[in-house]
Design goal:
The complex is a heterodimer of chains A (229) and B (454).
Chain A (H helix, E strand, L loop, with lengths): L2 E11 L5 E12 L4 E5 L6 H9 L6 E6 L2 E2 L5 H11 E4 L11 H9 L8 H10 L15 H13 L5 E5 L7 H18 L2 E6 L2 H4 L4 E4 H4 L12
Parallel strand pairs in A: 3-8, 3-9, 6-7, 7-8
Antiparallel strand pairs in A: 1-2, 1-4, 4-5
Helix pairs in contact in A: 3-4, 3-5, 4-5, 5-6
Chain B lengths: L2 H11 L1 H32 L8 E5 L3 H8 L10 E2 H9 L5 E13 L5 E5 L9 E2 L5 E2 L3 E3 L17 E4 L1 H7 L6 E5 L7 E12 L10 E4 H6 L7 H12 L4 H12 L14 E2 L1 E6 L3 H17 L3 E4 L1 H55 L4 H39 L13 H25 L3 H6 L1
Parallel strand pairs in B: 4-11, 8-10
Antiparallel strand pairs in B: 1-13, 1-14, 2-12, 3-4, 3-9, 3-13, 5-6, 7-10, 8-11, 9-10
The chains are: A alpha/beta (229), B alpha+beta (454).
């Protein structure tokens, strides 16, 4: 089992003193190397779910288990290190550092784990995503498709066991969408990485064997309002 | 990538702002180093110059004034001592005096108004000061004298010989062979007829000697009007010693017989000395004892006093120069503090733009402590770069200024280094941590989920 969520509850405070429930998940599993698409309406708690899984946000209650590690109970510094070493993250808006070159952005992904910064792997990853000749370009000098490919290379840099992708093709032009998607999927297949890909696109979701609607297992959605937290 | 390279990237990203904030630190550090070096120069000029002689013996009055007049040539000398006092002082073996050099002052040069010091050739045989490790510094001749000599020893052997300090030579464009006349001290501005010939130009010493013209004491007495009228001199001798010497008695007789005018050597009674520069002989223990005994013996006298120049100058430095130095150091520290606030403001303002970067790093697994360390590394980088820049600027400035300040008698080693500079680097690193801490805490507290969703 790569990922297990049990009895997860997450809510946010409201101005009137009440709490706005965003996640109420009894049980959710993702097997090692399994790839699934998670579909849900905007504001349905998809991003919050990814943040809870990655340990960026802690749940109010419940258990997040990744590779048999109880992430939700880890002290924050340990959780940060765990995220650096075991979880890859691909964001909708790429989130590359503008002052860093493509190569440096990938190396940065390796900088916060205990392992050594492996320049050879960074070069190999960038070559795999077709950017072997754009190593020293800064994000501003790359197309959006190229930027997302750098982000994919960065997410895979530490050989994670779980890759979280938050609308990775939403900001990419049509010509690049399929390329990005195939890159992510083939990399995960090669390295046996579990993939949880959030999308609102039925075209993207349709390519996965396992497709889940967030509202099917998140009972908070029925009552939750608009939130992106 | 390590913290350092991440910080460097971040600094380079805001190259202009970073350069300006570093420059402000550099200017503050530069000022501080210049003040430290200038302080060292002043200390050297005052304190080390006072280390040339163990004691100065002169007329009763202000002790500091005696030191300032006889060593620094500042101010007006008091009522001089009879020459006989000097002769009896050195002839008494119980005083354990190793060297005693009489000096007489009052006149100035016609050109430039440099002080004239009448003394004996022995003046140049003694060290003019000692380095802090005790090494004596002796006079050197800058240009060969008429006798082709190189050391200061043996200069002004003839009554109308003169030696000039380095600044006098440069300012007046004088050299060996130049003839000079003396202007009588006081308000009349009378130019004496007698001419002195420069026989040696001294190398720069960084002391008031550089601004002095030295003439043979005998020549000084032979200048018409310099000898005290015999009747006055004998009255002064009687008042000073309670008796008159045989030589004075003979001179009085001779004056009666020649109707008041004689063209021979000036009788001792008519000679006076402004002060006597004294070194005590023997090893340290004997020297201290002899020095203290001589001081007590002379200071009991109502007409003369013996002072230790180093004690007087130390006291002056503490009471006068010390507070000025503290004030200057305080002001430069304030300048550095203001630069530090500049760094703080610069980094703090950049935090709004960098919140996203911080959140990305945190999402990639950077711990809170790591992003705090990146910000501290950045402020340290700016402070240290500014500090090193300031160090270079200061020493370049000293290098450029050394020849200019030499005109004012300050000898500056262009590669001079103040020990206080060593403290600057750790202080700057501590300071950087201080100014980087608040922006660092902003990074530390960044809400990753919120920032990434904004």
């Amino acid at each position: 089992m790569s990922l297990l969520l049990e009895e997860i509850r997450k809510s946010y405070p409201e101005p009137d003193g009440g709490r706005l429930p965003v996640l109420e998940i009894e049980r959710f599993e993702l097997a090692r190397g399994e790839q699934m698409a998670l579909v849900g309406a905007s504001g349905g708690g998809k991003t919050t779910l990814l943040n809870v899984i990655s340990g960026i946000t802690t749940p109010d209650s419940g258990r997040v288990v990744i590779d048999n590690n109880l992430v939700s109970e880890m002290p924050e510094p340990i959780r940060d290190r765990f995220r650096a070493e075991r979880i890859g993250f691909v964001f909708q808006t790429f989130n590359l550092l503008p002052a860093f070159t493509a190569l440096e952005n990938v190396l940065l992904g390796m900088s916060f784990s205990r392992g050594r910064v492996d320049r050879g792997r960074a070069l190999e990853l960038l070559d795999n995503v077709g950017l072997g000749n754009r190593l020293n370009h800064r994000p501003g000098q790359l197309s959006v498709g190229e930027q997302q490919r750098v982000a994919v290379a960065r997410a895979l840099s530490n050989r994670p066991s779980l890759l979280l992708a938050d609308e990775p093709t939403a900001n990419v032009d049509l010509a690049n969408q399929q390329t990005i998607l195939e890159l992510i999927r083939s990399a995960c297949t090669t390295d046996n990485v579990a993939l949880l890909l959030v999308t609102h696109s039925s075209d993207v979701a349709g390519q996965f064997d396992r497709i889940e609607q967030l509202s099917d297992f998140n009972t908070a959605v029925a009552t939750a309002g608009e939130t992106t937290r | 990538m390590n913290l350092g390279s991440i910080a460097i990237k971040s600094v380079r990203q805001r190259a202009l702002a970073s350069a300006l904030t570093s420059l402000s630190v550099a200017l503050g550090v530069m000022l501080m180093i210049v003040v430290l070096v200038a302080n060292g120069m002043v200390e050297r000029m005052f304190v080390q110059t006072a280390t040339g002689y163990d004691l100065i013996i002169g007329p009763k009055g202000s002790q500091l004034e005696l030191v300032l007049t006889s060593i620094y040539r500042i101010g007006v000398a008091g009522e001089p001592l009879p020459y006989r006092f000097y002769r009896e002082l050195v002839s008494d073996d119980s005083n354990r005096i190793a060297e005693a050099v009489p000096i007489t002052m009052g006149d100035v040069t016609q050109r430039g108004g440099f002080p004239i010091l009448g003394t004996t050739p022995d003046y140049f045989a003694l060290p003019y000061m000692h380095e802090s490790d005790g090494t004596p510094r002796r006079f050197q001749i800058r240009t060969n004298s008429l006798d082709n000599q190189h050391s200061g020893e043996g200069l002004i052997r003839n009554p109308f010989d003169a030696a000039i300090g380095a600044i006098v030579a440069r300012h007046n464009d004088w050299d060996v062979g130049t003839k000079l006349k003396l202007v009588h001290g006081g308000s009349d501005g009378h130019v004496h007829d007698e001419e002195f010939t420069v026989t040696g130009v001294l190398a720069a010493t960084g002391t008031p000697n550089d601004r002095t013209v030295f003439v043979h004491i005998d020549g000084f007495y032979m200048i018409s009007g310099h000898e005290k009228p015999l009747s006055e001199a004998i009255a002064r001798e009687l008042e000073f010693f309670g008796n008159i010497s045989d030589e004075s008695r003979k001179a009085l007789e001779a004056e009666k017989n020649t109707s008041g005018h004689s063209h021979g050597p000036v009788p001792e009674a008519q000679k006076e000395v402004t002060a006597i520069l004294v070194n005590i002989g023997g090893d340290v223990g004997v020297q201290v004892l002899a020095e203290s005994r001589l001081m007590s013996r002379i200071n009991e006298d109502v007409q003369a006093q013996a002072v230790k120049p180093i004690v007087q100058i130390d006291r002056m430095m503490q009471t006068l120069v010390g507070p000025i130095r503290t004030l200057l150091m305080g002001l430069t520290a304030l300048i550095i503090a203001v630069s530090g606030i500049g760094i703080f403001v610069s980094i703090y303002n950049s935090m709004a733009d960098r919140k996203k970067e911080i959140a990305i790093m945190r999402a990639l697994g950077a711990r809170r402590g790591t992003v705090l360390a990146v910000i501290l590394a950045e402020s340290t980088l700016l402070c240290v770069a500014g500090g090193l820049g300031g160090f270079l600027l200061a020493h370049l400035m000293i290098l450029a200024a050394a020849p200019m300040v030499a005109d004012y008698g300050l000898v500056v080693d262009p590669w001079t280094f103040a020990w206080g500079e060593l403290v600057l680097l750790p202080v700057l690193i501590g300071f950087a941590s201080l100014v980087g801490f608040v922006p660092g805490m902003t990074a530390y507290r960044t809400d990753v989920a919120q920032t990434l969703s904004d």
